[in-house]
Design goal:
The structure holds three protein chains of three kinds. Chain A has 13 helices and two strands, in the order ααααβαβαααααααα. By secondary structure, chain A is mostly helical. Chain A has a single domain, classed as ABC transporter involved in vitamin B12 uptake, BtuC, CATH 1.10.3470. A two-stranded antiparallel ribbon of chain A has the order 1-2. Among the domains of chain B are: 15-104 and 167-247, Rossmann fold, CATH 3.40.50; 265-344 and 434-446 and 465-519, P-loop containing nucleotide triphosphate hydrolases (Rossmann fold, 3-Layer(aba) Sandwich). Chain B contains 17 helices and 22 strands. By secondary structure, chain C is an all-alpha fold. In chain C, helix 7 (195-212) runs antiparallel to helix 12. Classes of the chains: A mainly alpha, B alpha/beta, C mainly alpha. Chains in contact: A-B, A-C, B-C. At the B-C interface, helix 10 and strand 18 of B face helix 8 and helix 9 of C.
C-alpha cells in the first residue's frame, strides 16, 4: 500500500478518524432512539438485545430480498416490536423498568443468536458507501472517507429531531410526559401511550443500528457482533444531555475510543490489545461518574426518569 | 383594572353540579352534593381535610367519574369524562401541587395548555400574544424562565395566568394560597374577585381558612364528611355559623390541656448558624439559629419553601449542612443512631408513610425501627428475637389505638391517621428528650388531629423540648409557648405566646423588614 | 394464619404459574420452528432431571448459580440493583489463581480455604467499588456494574494472554495453573464437586443474615425507604458497602470454586454467563436466599438440557437462553398480579 507519499504517523490518525466515523454509526442511531425514549421518562436497558435482534433480522431480510435497505427497514421494525414489548411490560403496575431492560437484554440476545444460526455462512448484500474521498490520491485517506449512507442519514436526522422536539406538538407532549406525569395527566394525555410510542421509536432506531453492524461493519452475522454498544448508548444520551445534536458528537467520541485499539494494532503496536478494547467501557464509566452527583439531580434530566433515585 | 380576556368567545356560563356522589371502595367520599354557580360568582368551598372538597371538584373536572350526578352548563346537561373535556368547556382547575413542567419555559407551559396545540408552533407569534395579554395583569411572569428556577409563588401566578389566557371562564382554585404569603394571597384573590364583579369570570375557591372566605367570597358552601352541611351568602353568616357547619354544632375546639405551671428548663436543642443547600444547590437555610428548652414547645411558622423542609432534613440526618453547629443537651449531635437513642431525640415528619416508614414492611416491623437492635429484641446483640418484637408491637398497638387487621399487615394498608398513630407510637413511646415535628397533622381527620396534639402537649408537660414546624398558624397558636417565623432561610421574628399577634406574624412571613404599621 | 403465610403462598403460586406460562410460550416458539412442543418438554426434563447423569450435570451448574444469584439478592435487600455477578466471578477467578500460585507448596488444608477467601475478596472489591461510586458520586449501580462486567472480561483476557500466561498451554490463552493438590474433588459417590456445598451453605447463611439479624433488618429498612433509614440514624454508607461486598464475595467465591473444582487455571472458560443467569435466578426467587436454592436447580436444569436439545433437535444451544429470557420476562410481568387475585389474599380479620 506504499505510494510515493509516505505520511507516516498521520496514517494512524486518518485511520482512526475513518474508523471513528464508521464505528460511531451504531452508537449514533441507538443514542438518537434512546434520547426519545428517555425524554418520555423511561430508560431502556434492553437495547443491547434490540441491537442484536436488529442485526439478525436485517441480515436475514437483506439476504432473502437482496436489498440491504429492506433489511434496514426490517431491522427497524423488529426493534420497534421489542420496544413495544418493553413499554408493555413497564406499563404494568409494580414492574421495575430497569429489571425489564435486563430481562429483554437476555431475551433479545438469546433469541438473536438462536434465530441467527442459519445465517452464519450465507452472505447478504451490504449497505453502500459514499466515496467522499475520491478526490484524494492517498489510499488511506480515500479509505477513511468512505462514509456509509446510514451515518449521513443519522447526522441529518439529529438536527431535525432537535427542531421537532422544540417546535412541534409531538415534541412538546413527549417532553411533558417525561418531565411531569402530573401535568400530562391533567392535560389528558395517556402517559403509557406516549411512552409506548417513544420506546417503540427508540427500538426502531436501535434496530437500525444493529442492521449497520451486520450489513456494513463488521458486515456479517456472528455471535459476538455487539458487545455493550446498547448499554453504552444509554450513558451517551446522558452525556449528550438529551440533545440529539450532541449525540452526534458523543457518538463520534465513542467511535474514536473504540477505533484506537485496532488502529494501533494495524500499525504494528500489538501489545495491550485487550486493554485498548476496554477503552470505550472505561470512557463510558468516566463520563457516567462525571455526569452524576449525589446532591442534585442532573441538570436538564427528564424528571420522570427512575434513573435518579 | 381588570384585563380583557384574549379569547372571550362565550359568556361565562351558569355552572351547576347536580347531586354528585362518589364512592372509593368502602369510603363514601361524596354524598349527593350540589353546587350552583351563576355567572360572576365567587363561591367558597369550605371544609376540613377529608370533607370531600377535592373529590367534588375532581368530579366536576372529569378527573373522576361520579357514581351519580352530572354537570350542567347554562341548563344543558354535560357529561364530562376526562379533564380535556372540562377544559374545552371553559372550566379550569388550578392545582395545589403544580402541574407545570420543570424543564420547560413558562411560554412552553402556556402553549402546552392550548387545545388543540398547533402541529408546528410559531414561537414568535405565541410569545407576542402572551406578552400582550400579560400587560393588563398586575403580576408578570418572565416567559423565558424555566419552571425549575421559579419560586412557589411565581409558579402559582403562572398557573392562574395560564388558565385565564387559555380562555377558561370558570376557575376552580384548590387551596391556592397555601404557598403564598398573606400579601401575595390578597393580591391574587383580590384580582380574581374584581374579575368576578365584572362578570368575566366565575371562581370556586377551596379553602379551610375563614379569613379568605369572609374577605373575598360572596357565597359559601360547607362540606362535612362528604355531604353539604350548609350554604349561604357570606355577608349573612358569622364565623361561628361556619364553624358549626364545618364541625357540627356543639363542637368545641378541643384545646390541649396546657400545664400552666411548667416553666422551661435547660436548653435541650440548640442550632447555631446552620447553613444548608436545597436540592438545586441554592442556599435554603441561611445561618439559622434557634434554641428549645425542656418543657416548652417552640413553634416555627412560615410559608412552605422558606427552608423549613431543609432544616428538618438536617436535623433528621437526611441532609448535610454546609456550616453550623447542632447541639443536644449541650453536646455536639451527629444524628447517629447511638446518639439519637442516648439523647432521646425523636422525629414526627410530615407525610409519615413516605418519610418515616417502609411500605412493604408490616406494622410490627415499622414499630420496631427504633429498638430492633437492642435487647430484649436481640439475642447476642445481632440476632432478632421475633417474639420480643411482636410483644412490643402488640403493646404499642393497644396503647395507641392503632386500627389494623393484624400486626403483620403491611403498613400501607392502614389509613393516614393510623399510619401517623403508628409513627407517633414509635417516636413518643420511649423517653423523649427532644421532639422535632413537622406538619404532623396534615391530611388527618379531626379526631386523629386532636389526639396527636394532645400527645405532644403531654410530652411537653412531662419535660420534653419540642420543636414544631407548622404551616397552620392556628395549630401553632394553640400549642406553642413561643412562636418564631422562618422566612427566606432564617428565623426573622420570635414572640412568646402571650403577646403573639397574627398580623405581625403574617407580616414577618412576607418580608424581612416589614414596614412599621399601626396595629 | 398470619399475613406472612399468605404472602409466601401468593409468591409461590404466582412464581410457579409464571414459570409454567413461560414454558407454554416457549412451546409455541418451538412449534413455529417445526418441532413438537411435547417432545421438547420431554427432552428438557430428561436433560435436567431424567438420568443420574443429567441430575449431576444440573447440580454442577446450579452451584455457581446459587452464588451469583446472591450477588444480586444480597445488595437488593439494601435497595441496590446490582447485575455485576459475571465480573465479580471473573475477578474471583483471577485472585484465586494469584493466591494459589503464591501459596504453592503449602499444605492443601490451609491453601484451599485461603484461595477461596482470596476469590471472595476479589469479587467483593469488584462490587464494592461501584457501590462506593453510587454512595459517594450518585452513579447508578446497575449501569456501572454492567460496565464493570465488560471491563473485568477485558482484564481477564489481557492477563491470561500476557502477564499471567502459561505458555505451555497451546489450546487457548490460559493463566498459570494452581497445584493439582489444591483442587477439590467431588462429593463421594457422585460426580458433583464440593462447590455445591459452598453454594447451599452460602444461601443458608445469607438467609439467616438477611432475615434474622439486626444487620439484615437494617439493610431492609434502607432498601425499603432511604429516608426512613436516615431518620432512624442508620449508617447508610456502611450498610450499602457491606451489602455490596457480601454480594460480590459470593460471586467471587463462585469464581474461586470454578478454579479449584473445575479448571485449575483462569481462562476465557470462566466467562459462560453464570453471572447473567444468576440475575434471573435472583429475580425468580424474589431476592429470597432460601428460594434461590430450588430456583438455581431449575435454571441449572434448563441449562444442562441444552446439550441434549442440541443433539436431539439440532437446536442451537441459545435455545436455553431464549427459555430463560422468557421466564424472566413472564416472572417480571407477574409482579403486576400481586394483591390482585382474591383467592391469594389474607382472609380479612375484623379489626379490634
Amino acid at each position: 500500500m506504499n505510494t510515493g507519499t509516505d505520511i507516516g504517523g498521520w496514517s494512524v490518525v486518518i485511520a482512526v478518524l475513518g474508523a471513528a466515523l464508521r464505528v460511531s454509526t451504531p452508537y449514533l442511531f441507538v443514542s438518537l432512539g434512546e434520547t426519545i425514549t428517555e425524554l418520555s421518562g423511561r430508560i431502556n436497558l434492553g437495547l443491547e438485545g434490540t441491537l442484536i435482534m436488529g442485526a439478525v433480522s436485517g441480515y436475514a431480510i437483506s439476504y432473502a430480498t437482496g436489498s440491504p435497505w429492506l433489511g434496514v427497514l426490517g431491522a427497524g421494525a423488529t426493534g420497534a416490536a421489542f420496544g413495544l414489548l418493553h413499554a408493555g411490560l413497564c406499563s404494568l403496575p409494580r414492574v421495575n423498568d430497569i429489571a425489564v431492560g435486563v430481562a429483554l437484554f437476555i431475551l433479545g440476545t438469546g433469541l438473536g443468536i438462536y434465530l441467527g444460526k442459519p445465517l452464519i455462512h450465507p452472505v447478504a448484500p451490504r449497505l453502500p458507501d459514499i466515496h467522499f474521498g475520491a478526490w484524494s490520491n492517498l489510499p488511506s485517506l480515500r479509505a477513511a472517507l468512505d462514509i456509509n449512507a446510514l451515518f449521513i442519514i443519522g447526522v441529518v436526522l439529529a438536527p431535525i429531531m432537535l427542531w421537532m422536539l422544540r417546535n412541534t406538538r409531538w415534541g412538546l407532549i413527549l417532553r411533558t410526559v417525561g418531565d411531569s406525569a402530573d401535568a400530562a395527566r391533567a392535560l389528558g394525555y395517556s402517559i403509557n401511550g406516549v411512552r409506548a410510542i417513544a420506546t417503540a421509536l427508540g427500538g426502531f432506531f436501535a434496530g437500525i443500528g444493529g442492521a449497520f453492524l451486520s450489513l456494513y461493519y463488521p458486515g456479517s452475522w456472528t455471535e459476538g457482533l455487539s458487545s455493550g454498544q446498547g448499554l453504552m448508548a444509554v450513558t451517551l444520551v446522558i452525556f449528550a444531555r438529551w440533545n440529539p445534536v450532541n449525540c452526534v458528537y458523543a457518538a463520534l467520541l465513542f467511535g474514536g475510543a473504540t477505533a484506537v485499539g485496532p488502529a494501533l494494532q494495524a500499525i504494528g503496536y500489538g501489545g495491550d490489545y485487550y486493554l485498548f478494547g476496554a477503552a470505550p467501557y472505561v470512557l463510558t464509566l468516566i463520563l457516567l461518574i462525571r455526569s452524576s452527583s449525589t446532591r442534585h439531580r442532573m441538570f436538564g434530566a427528564p424528571s420522570e426518569l427512575t434513573f435518579n433515585k | 383594572m381588570t384585563p380583557t380576556l384574549a379569547s372571550a368567545v362565550t359568556q361565562v356560563p351558569l355552572v351547576e353540579a347536580v347531586g354528585m356522589s362518589k364512592r372509593f371502595g368502602s369510603l363514601l367520599a361524596l354524598d349527593d352534593v350540589s353546587l350552583r354557580l351563576p355567572a360572576g360568582s365567587f363561591h367558597a368551598l369550605l371544609g376540613e381535610n377529608g370533607a370531600g372538597k377535592s373529590t367534588l371538584v375532581k368530579c366536576m373536572m372529569g378527573y373522576h367519574r361520579p357514581d351519580r350526578g352530572h354537570l350542567s352548563l347554562d341548563g344543558v346537561r354535560r357529561d364530562i369524562h376526562n379533564p380535556r373535556q372540562a377544559l374545552d368547556a371553559g372550566i379550569g382547575l388550578v392545582y395545589q401541587h403544580f402541574t407545570l413542567v420543570p424543564n420547560m419555559t413558562a411560554a412552553e407551559n402556556i402553549v402546552l395548555g392550548r387545545s388543540p396545540i398547533a402541529r408546528v408552533i410559531d414561537w414568535a407569534a405565541e410569545r407576542a400574544q402572551i406578552e400582550a395579554f400579560q400587560r393588563d395583569m398586575p403580576f408578570h411572569v418572565d416567559l423565558g424562565a424555566r419552571i425549575s428556577g421559579l419560586a412557589a409563588g411565581e409558579k402559582q401566578k403562572l398557573e392562574i395566568l395560564k388558565q385565564l389566557y387559555l380562555g377558561r371562564r370558570v376557575l376552580i382554585l384548590d387551596e391556592p394560597t397555601s404557598v403564598l404569603t398573606p400579601a401575595e394571597a390578597d393580591q391574587v384573590l383580590g384580582l380574581l374577585r374584581d374579575m368576578t364583579r365584572e362578570r368575566t369570570l366565575s371562581v370556586v375557591l377551596i379553602t379551610h381558612k375563614f379569613r379568605e372566605v369572609i374577605a373575598f367570597a360572596r357565597e359559601v358552601t360547607v362540606l362535612r364528611a362528604g355531604r353539604a352541611a350548609g350554604s349561604g351568602s357570606v355577608g349573612e353568616l358569622k364565623q361561628a355559623d361556619l364553624a358549626a357547619m364545618m364541625f357540627g354544632s356543639g363542637a368545641v375546639f378541643a384545646s390541649a390541656a396546657r400545664d400552666k405551671a411548667s416553666t422551661p428548663g435547660d436548653i435541650r436543642l440548640e442550632v447555631t448558624a446552620m447553613t444548608a443547600l436545597n436540592d438545586k444547590g441554592v442556599v435554603a437555610c441561611d445561618e439559622v439559629s434557634l434554641a428549645v428548652r425542656s418543657g416548652e414547645i417552640l413553634g416555627i411558622a412560615g410559608v412552605a419553601g422558606n427552608g423549613q423542609r431543609e432544616l428538618v432534613e438536617v436535623l433528621a440526618g437526611q441532609r448535610e449542612a454546609q456550616a453550623g453547629e447542632l447541639r443536644v443537651m449541650g453536646e455536639r449531635y451527629d444524628r447517629s443512631r447511638k446518639q439519637m437513642r442516648v439523647r432521646g431525640v425523636h422525629l414526627l415528619t410530615e407525610e409519615p408513610l413516605d418519610n418515616g416508614c417502609v411500605r412493604g414492611m408490616s406494622v410490627a416491623e415499622n414499630l420496631s425501627f427504633r429498638n430492633f437492635d437492642e435487647p430484649p429484641q436481640t439475642v447476642f446483640g445481632c440476632f432478632l428475637r421475633g417474639s420480643a418484637l411482636r410483644r412490643h408491637a402488640a403493646a404499642l398497638i393497644k396503647r395507641y389505638g392503632i386500627r389494623t387487621a393484624s400486626p403483620d399487615s403491611r403498613i400501607d394498608t392502614l389509613s393516614g391517621g393510623n399510619v401517623q398513630r403508628t409513627v407517633l407510637a414509635r417516636e413518643l413511646s420511649g423517653a423523649v428528650s427532644v421532639l422535632i415535628a413537622q406538619n404532623p397533622c396534615v391530611g388527618l381527620d379531626f379526631a386523629a388531629t386532636s389526639e396527636i396534639r394532645a400527645q405532644m402537649m403531654a410530652a411537653r408537660n412531662a419535660g420534653s423540648a419540642i420543636l414544631l414546624f407548622s404551616e397552620d398558624l392556628d395549630e401553632l397558636l394553640e400549642l406553642a409557648d413561643r412562636i418564631g417565623v422562618m422566612f427566606e432561610g432564617a428565623i426573622v421574628y420570635e414572640t412568646p405566646r402571650a403577646t403573639a399577634d397574627v398580623q405581625t406574624i403574617g407580616l414577618h412571613m412576607a418580608s424581612r423588614q416589614p414596614a412599621q404599621e399601626a396595629a | 394464619m398470619g399475613a406472612a403465610y399468605w404472602r409466601g403462598l401468593e409468591a409461590m403460586t404466582l412464581t410457579v404459574a409464571a414459570v409454567l406460562a413461560a414454558l407454554l410460550l416457549f412451546g409455541i416458539f418451538v412449534a413455529f420452528d417445526g418441532l413438537n412442543p411435547v417432545d421438547v418438554y420431554r427432552v428438557l426434563y430428561l436433560g435436567a432431571f431424567g438420568t443420574s447423569f443429567s441430575i449431576e450435570s444440573t447440580l454442577t451448574r446450579a452451584a455457581p448459580l446459587m452464588l451469583t444469584a446472591l450477588c444480586v439478592a444480597i445488595p437488593a435487600r439494601a435497595g441496590l440493583l446490582i447485575i455485576g455477578g459475571e465480573g465479580a466471578l471473573v475477578l474471583g477467578g483471577i485472585t484465586a489463581v494469584l493466591a494459589g500460585v503464591a501459596l504453592a507448596g503449602s499444605p492443601p488444608g490451609i491453601a484451599i480455604p485461603l484461595i477461596l477467601v482470596a476469590g471472595a475478596a476479589g469479587g467483593a472489591a469488584w462490587i464494592a467499588i461501584p457501590a462506593g461510586l453510587r454512595q459517594f458520586r450518585g452513579v447508578n449501580e446497575t449501569i456501572s456494574t454492567l460496565l464493570f462486567n465488560y471491563i473485568a472480561i477485558a482484564l481477564l483476557n489481557h492477563l491470561v494472554s500476557g502477564p499471567m500466561r502459561d505458555y505451555a498451554q497451546t489450546l487457548k490463552p490460559t493463566s498459570w495453573p494452581i497445584e493439582p493438590a489444591f483442587m477439590i474433588g467431588t462429593i463421594p459417590g457422585t460426580n458433583v464437586n464440593w462447590g455445591l456445598a459452598c453454594g447451599i451453605v452460602a444461601c443458608l447463611v445469607a438467609y439467616v443474615a438477611l432475615r434474622r439479624t439486626t444487620l439484615g433488618f437494617a439493610m431492609g429498612i434502607l432498601g425499603g425507604n432511604l429516608r426512613a433509614a436516615q431518620m432512624t440514624g442508620l449508617p447508610v454508607a456502611r450498610l450499602v458497602l457491606i451489602a455490596a461486598a457480601l454480594g460480590g464475595a459470593a460471586a467471587g467465591l463462585a469464581g474461586a470454586v470454578e478454579i479449584v473444582a473445575v479448571h485449575g487455571a483462569a481462562s476465557v472458560s470462566l466467562v459462560v454467563g453464570y453471572g447473567y443467569a444468576g440475575i434471573l435466578v435472583a429475580f425468580i426467587a424474589r431476592q429470597n436466599p432460601l428460594a434461590v436454592i430450588p430456583v438455581a436447580l431449575l435454571v441449572g436444569g434448563i441449562s444442562a438440557s441444552g446439550g441434549l436439545l442440541q443433539r436431539r433437535f439440532a437446536m442451537p444451544d441459545a435455545a436455553t437462553t431464549v427459555l430463560e429470557g422468557c421466564i424472566f420476562v413472564v416472572v417480571l410481568a407477574s409482579n403486576a398480579l400481586y394483591g390482585r387475585i382474591r383467592l391469594l389474599q389474607p382472609r380479612a380479620v375484623a379489626p379490634a
